[in-house]
Amino acid sequence: MKLYQHCLSAVPLAVAGYAAAGGSVAAGFMAGFSSVLMDLDHVADYVIHNRGWGGVEDFFKSCEEGRLTKLYLVMHGFEWLILLWLLIGTGAAAPWGVGLAIGMSGHMLLDWLGNRHIVKPSFYWLWFRAQHNFDGNALYRVPPGMAVEVVRENRV
């Protein structure tokens, strides 16, 4: 999903976090904050791929067009959500933890639905990416480099 879409979704997720934690401002803040900032792991993957920073425009194009050859995305894993919801279910999570779980869950759901055309169905499991050595050629529906050509062909 695009950054502006995650920013827009942060507002209802923040409200949900606030309500779910019994009116906790910390939970509301964490839900909204985490739903956007968990995408910072894309920056690390981009820098690894390019061996440096190529600018904001190239960063967004690389991510949106599926050009990265390695996809670690350490925060984008359903395994983290399972852990967070287990902590909540056992009563071990603070209100901000409830907000974190709601924000990350909302983000992951939107990514999973919104990026189906770019990545394979099991992409958002860390074990799946690790099993494929975090290799973009095995994780994207269209391998890096080819995606740019497919986009160009569809525009003609």
From TrEMBL:
Membrane spanning stretches: 80-102
Annotated signal peptide: 1-21
Keyword annotations of the record: Membrane, Signal, Transmembrane, Transmembrane helix
Protein name per its UniProtKB record: Membrane-bound metal-dependent hydrolase
Organism for this UniProt entry: Solidesulfovibrio fructosivorans JJ]
